[in-house]
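Title: Comparing notes on inverse folding

I've been comparing how different people in this forum approach sequence design from structure. To keep things fair, I'm posting one structure and asking everyone to reply with a full sequence. Here's the target:
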């Protein structure tokens, strides 16, 4: 099985590639968007079928694979998945151990395959509390996939948005004087080990029926479009993913600006947005507002 479709090398969108039998309305040809995903509902999915919660997480990895495979074909250039929040340490030791093991296996077993398919891996979050073997797997996977650049696949692990902002403030304040010109954003990236730099989140999807952010990417989601799905994560399909992307493509993003103004969002200099959504949107803005 291909982790990523061969189409990844030519990710420009055509209308039928984003259309669905149930949704023949085409989307705009948006490319290179950053999608954040809160994969919620594994525990409920398993318990409702009489299985332990850990079984839901295992099935959650299957769902994750199909979305990763589909993402580049749908114009997604960066995918950031919330795999383990800093608050998830409160869960039973067995569940925590299972989650750490799933991540380690994924990174160990899929790094080469990712590189071959143009997928660059990056684990963001705290690294000081990760099990040693997971940390090694992270470093190895990031090194192996370093040259890939078609899809940037980020797992947020031991991640807390508020912690990262606090840590960044500490780093930034400490570094001032020598680096007055360094933007605060850099400190955030440093605090969470983000490499490469990526633009802000364009679309934030949460499965599982809850409608909250749970400390996920508060800085980077400042202007994210939000999409909440009732579907529990192990059942989340490519069709559900398309539904979110299709809704996103019909949103009118104004970034607080007026007609014709450029949005105030960050795009790293190396990060090309071919036919960028932002460029097009800036000229399509019709109304004032947020
Ligand atoms: C939330 O569902 C999900 C998690 C805390 C973990 C998500 C992790 C994975 C899908 C697998 C990670 C593996 C890799 C390879 C990155 P929940 O358990 O809170 O569900 P509930 O709300 O139904 O209890």
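Reply #1:
Here's my take.
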């Amino acid at each position: 099985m291909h982790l990523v479709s061969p189409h990844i090398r030519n990710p420009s969108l055509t209308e039928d590639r984003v259309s669905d039998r149930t949704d023949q309305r085409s989307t705009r040809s948006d490319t290179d968007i950053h999608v954040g995903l809160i994969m919620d509902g594994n525990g409920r999915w398993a318990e409702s079928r009489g299985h332990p919660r850990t079984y839901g997480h295992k099935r959650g990895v299957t769902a994750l694979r199909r979305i990763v495979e589909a993402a580049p074909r749908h114009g997604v250039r960066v995918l950031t998945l919330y795999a383990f929040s800093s608050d998830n340490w409160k869960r039973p030791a067995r569940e925590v151990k299972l989650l750490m093991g799933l991540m380690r296996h994924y990174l160990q077993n899929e790094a080469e395959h990712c590189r071959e398919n143009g997928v660059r891996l990056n684990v963001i979050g705290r690294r000081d509390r990760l099990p040693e073997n997971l940390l090694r797997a992270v470093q190895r996977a990031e090194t192996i996939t370093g040259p890939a650049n078609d899809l940037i696949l980020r797992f947020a692990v031991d991640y807390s948005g508020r912690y990262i902002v606090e840590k960044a403030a500490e780093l930034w304040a400490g570094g001032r004087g020598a680096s007055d010109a360094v933007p605060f954003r850099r400190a955030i990236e440093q605090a969470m080990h983000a490499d490469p730099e990526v633009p802000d989140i364009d679309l934030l999807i949460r499965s599982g029926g809850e409608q909250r952010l749970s400390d996920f990417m508060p800085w980077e989601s400042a202007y994210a479009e939000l999409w909440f799905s009732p579907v529990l994560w192990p059942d989340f399909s490519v069709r559900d993913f398309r539904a979110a992307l299709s809704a996103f493509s019909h949103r009118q993003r104004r970034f607080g600006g007026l007609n014709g103004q450029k949005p105030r969002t960050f795009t790293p200099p190396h990060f090309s947005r071919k036919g960028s959504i932002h460029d097009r949107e800036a000229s399509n803005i019709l109304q004032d507002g947020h």
